[in-house]
Design brief:
Protein name: Lipoprotein
Keywords: Signal
Structural class: mainly alpha
């Protein structure tokens, strides 16, 4: 039972990271300045690189 709860927790955390990344990238796409937009994407990549 404990292993199932752990597995469910890991799956939910992975899903929430994907959702967060999608929201962040969506916000980046709204930036009109190309240099700022590229920096935003790099920041998102760096932020989420350690998530599963």
């Amino acid at each position: 039972m404990k292993s199932m709860i752990l597995l469910l927790t890991l799956l939910l955390s992975a899903c929430s990271a994907d959702i967060g990344r999608g929201i962040a990238e969506s916000d980046c796409s709204k930036i009109r300045n190309n240099a700022d937009r590229e920096q935003c994407y790099k920041d998102v990549e760096r932020t989420f690189e350690h998530y599963p």
